Amino acid sequence: MKYEAEFVAAGNVPLATSVAGSTWRREIRLCIYAALALGDGVAISIAFLLATLIRFGTPFDPAGLTSLTVMLPVYYGIAFQRKPYSGRFFTNWRRTAHDAITALVTAIAVSGIVAFAIHAQIDISRSVVPIGGILSGIALIGTRALIHRIALPLLGGHPIATIVLIDGAPIDVPPGVRSLDTGVYGLCPDPTDPHALDRLSAAIGGAERVVLACPGERREAWAVTLKGANVQGEIVTPDLMAIGAVRLSSFADCASVVVSLGPLDTLNRILKRAFDIGVSLATLALLWPVLLGVAIAIRLDSPGPVLFRQPRMGRGNALFSILKFRSMRIDACDIAGDRSTERDDPRITRVGRFIRATSIDELPQILNVLRGTMSIVGPRPHALGSLAGDKLFWEVDRHYWYRHAVKPGITGLAQINGFRGATAVPEDLENRLRADISYMRGWTIWRDIRILAATTGVLLHRNAF
């Protein structure tokens, strides 16, 4: 273009081609998405053929092939709704793997319902499906990990061609991302000046994503300009960071800022609840003799009720009564929870010392889980008067309340990392809080399973007293 040629010739701005071009990146990304979709089909097909081989001695038994033929189209129909083949793959491939596995489990369930409904017309092997499902899940994770490892170097470490425009506001630009100072290169958001818009186009040409840092009074002008630039335009707004903005929305024709969302969507809440109920019922079935024996021992050891109830704050900041086996003398029980338990605490009974050291005192919380006030895995609920040093927990860090967006758990990420016991100093709470928030932000059902499995290794802990 005339203005672009004049502008570049004058040495005012680097050539547009100096910004990593978008065309080849788009083509590579499309190839990667196609490879992901094809890889899913190949992985699931191989897994089900292997399952058929294990079950029938041949990979081409009609019952096994029918299972695959019915399930695979259903999988793709569900998977495309969850968008596992999108740009999110580059930033969080594990999340897309989780979405793919969720689609797989749903597809298997739907296929089973279909098979049950028209059993006379379709022959699906009930043994091939679970074996194939497990092998498919492993294969889906493996193919995504492999493709992600190959894809990022092909895209130069940056899947989307990005340029940062700096217009009088500070911003930290990551290494490898190109930036331009608009003042140095004479770039401005002037919708009334075609020459200015042309210069801006020359500067950002080839970019797919433009990130802008500017003072608040110039954001509207830049927003108008970027909307016509055929790019993903973003304006950095530090004031929104202060309130933890999640995304933009609207209400009554007015723009609004979303500051909170439930950490789990409906499907994942159902999945987590099913996991909680299944584990709770299995635990009761296995350990009821232990529960009965401990209850009898508590009654014989000291007068008072078997169970100890204490108000705790649960999901949505709602109070509930947590259940524990009573481990202290009835006249010394700390309902408010403002006194941390110490090693060799004189309030603890003989039986109480044993059940606290082995974490058996927490087992009645299975009833809390069945009631729906707690989960098997989640942030541990704290007593209202709990102190970190001489400060109430919520006085230590304003992010403390974030952990109440999910149900509290019997065990959690903080506990398996060793962050349990007395909170003598604020740092003790901060360690737990970081673990709790990390758990919430990265929740998957597999993470719950891993945490539950790891809990068996920390039941006997030096801070359990």
Structure description:
By secondary structure, the chain is α/β, with parallel strands linked by helices. It contains 17 helices and twelve strands. It folds into three domains: 2-18 and 161-247, no CATH class; 23-154, no CATH class; 266-455, no CATH class. The protein has helices spanning 2-9, 23-56, 62-82, 88-91, 93-117, 128-154, 182-185, 194-204, 219-227, 238-242, 266-301, 350-357, 365-371, 393-396, 413-416, 426-441, 445-455, and strands spanning 162-166, 178-181, 209-213, 232-235, 247-251, 254-258, 307-313, 319-325, 375-377, 387-388, 391-392, 409-411. The strands form five sheets. Strands 2-1-3-4 form a four-stranded parallel sheet. The chain has a two-stranded antiparallel ribbon with strand order 5-6. Strands 7-8 form a two-stranded antiparallel ribbon. Helix 2 runs antiparallel to helix 3 and helix 11 runs antiparallel to helix 12. The longest helix has 36 residues, at 266-301. The protein is flat, with a radius of gyration of 29 Å. The N and C termini lie far apart (76 Å). It holds the Pfam family Bac_transf.
